Amino acid sequence: xxxxxxxxxxxxxxRTISQVAESIRSGALIAYPTDSCYALGxxxxxxxxxxxxxxxxxxxxxxxxxxVCQDFAQLGQxxxxxxxxxxxxxxxxxxxxxxxxxxxxxxxxxxxxxxxxTVGVRIPxxxxxxxxxxxxxxxxxxxxxxxxxxxxxxxxxxxxxDRLDHVLDGVVDSGECGTEPTTVIDFSGGEAEIVRRGAGDxxxxx
Length: 206
Prior knowledge:
This protein is of the alpha/beta class and 206 residues long. The protein has six helices and ten strands. Strands 1-8-2-3-7-4-6-5-9-10 form a ten-stranded mixed beta sheet, with helices on both faces. Helix 1 (14-25) crosses helix 5. The relative contact order is 0.25. It is an enzyme of class 2 (transferase). Pfam families: Sua5_yciO_yrdC (PF01300).
């Protein structure tokens, strides 16, 4: 049964955020809100968490997982970025974008695309997510909470708790979330390739 965390959207309660972070460190898989839509999240090195996300979403091994980072300094530990790409990403963060980039050795092999050796990274513009990342002290391994055969993610914490109570360990609710996933930009080839048009404005990458 998933634990329900009711978090204030503008002033997240430190005690509650600390409890969520501790559960993640202990191996929990949670649903949490972002600046685009709800996401599934677990600790970076959690193979069990990855397997559970794949099962919930029916994903194959070519799916790009995302490392949700607190800031640019943290993001830079996990991906390789040249100067031109650095400027483009810096100008777009924090925000509703996921960037696909070559992974560094800090990224567990099981998270990398099996052929490209890439990983998704992003810095969300969301008060609750940022508070959780600050408390956790490391990126949150994430994937959009979009269920198989459904076109839009769920937007309400209570709805997620009701439907996924048996497969999640926790649900963070800070009010209604958006329905549009992040815009995904692939920089792994050096040039910006728009993989998915979503919540982030794509005009700067066209």
